[in-house]
Specification:
about 350 residues, alpha/beta, eight-stranded parallel barrel, 14 helices
Length: about 350
């Protein structure tokens, strides 16, 4: 099992890069850079590509709405070039709060758009003349929608790879099915190994049945909060995880349109999910965090002595996870380094 982590987007690039180099030396396999309403992820990924040698780089994630499909393909090819073939293109739909509130474009047809973006990217990477007629994207633009001067073009540069790995962030059954069909990797959220099969098994099986052999086995990249030690205040550490769960389950969307709340319901926490959302949307964030079920917090985290963490790593592996993106609860550089070193040893 590979071990990754997410780069900080609150500090300076040079400071983050220095820490990533230390983590790379400690055995870190993958570094992810988020793109929300922060600095763009491309700048930091390019910076990291220049100062690292082995660690793989991941966009975690580029929203599909914020770039044209061709620009997404160009960007991925460029990052793969400057990293000498170490880049994975992480894509996702994000949510209407960010897409409409920050980018100012309609949040529509996320599944169809994702499928077409991936198709266009792979056509660009193969250096074919770009011609695509889809439900959401038509390239070149038809004459009746523009000047009529558009013509099929192909990428001038030759990419390092003609198939850059694609990771899709997906939660809903249809989205997960599509991911298992067309992507090299899948990023879920709040992955609970004991319930993954009942929640996602059918969608994964349906997608894999249509999967092209050249894609290989579907990789599963999962984020998890981590604190490892024999004398931890586990209750306090678990309480530090609750607000993040409450934010997503309660606050990332409106009532009736919150993908993360829907996931909690599918896990079997229907009443708890409703309570968390009601409290959060009423401004009672502390109460919402306290309402997050203990079982959900504990089983989606890695908090405890080494023996417990090793058992849970095995459970994630058995459920199909191939990369754990650790989120160390000790936020100091020394703590993050120790966490990565310990996780590499336990996962090995």
């Amino acid at each position: 099992m590979r071990i990754g982590t997410q780069a900080s987007y609150s500090g300076g690039f040079a400071q983050t890069a220095a820490e990533v180099r230390d983590l790379e030396a400690a055995g870190l396999d993958l570094i992810s850079v988020a793109e929300v309403y922060t600095f763009d992820a491309v700048s930091q990924l390019g910076y990291l590509a220049a100062v690292t040698e082995r660690v793989e780089l991941l966009s975690g994630i580029f929203p599909i709405y914020s770039r044209t499909p061709a620009l997404t393909a160009m960007t991925a090819a460029g990052l793969d070039f400057v990293s000498n073939g170490r880049f994975t293109l992480g894509l996702g739909a994000s949510g209407p709060q960010v897409i409409e509130g920050w980018h100012g474009v309609p949040y529509d047809a996320p599944l169809q758009r994702t499928r077409e973006v991936v198709e266009i990217c792979r056509q660009v990477w193969r250096r074919e003349r770009l011609q695509h007629e889809g439900k959401k994207y038509t390239v070149p633009l038809p004459a009746d929608q523009g000047t009529g001067l558009g013509k099929p073009l192909k990428l001038i540069n030759t990419p390092v790879r003609d198939r850059i790995p694609v990771m899709l962030a997906a939660l809903g059954p249809k989205n997960v099915e599509m991911c298992a069909e067309i992507a090299e990797a899948w990023e879920p959220i709040f992955f609970l190994p004991e319930r993954a099969q009942s929640v996602w098994g059918e969608a994964l099986a349906a997608g894999k049945a249509k999967r092209a052999p050249e894609l290989g086995e579907l990789q599963v990249v999962n984020g998890v909060s981590v604190a490892i030690g024999e004398n931890l205040d586990e209750a306090a550490l678990l309480d530090r995880v609750r607000p993040g769960l409450a934010l997503y389950i309660g606050g990332m969307g409106a009532r009736g349109k919150n993908f993360y709340n829907d996931l909690a319901v599918r896990y079997g926490y229907e009443q708890e999910a409703k309570t968390i959302q009601d409290l959060y949307l009423d401004g009672k964030k502390d109460e919402a965090a306290a309402a997050v079920p203990d079982e959900l917090v504990r089983l989606t985290s890695l908090i405890g002595p080494e023996s417990w963490v090793a058992e849970r790593i095995a459970a994630f592996r058995e459920a199909g996870v191939t990369t754990l993106m650790v989120q160390p609860l000790d936020g100091s550089p020394e703590g993050r380094l120790k966490t990565v070193e310990t996780m590499k040893r336990l996962a090995g």
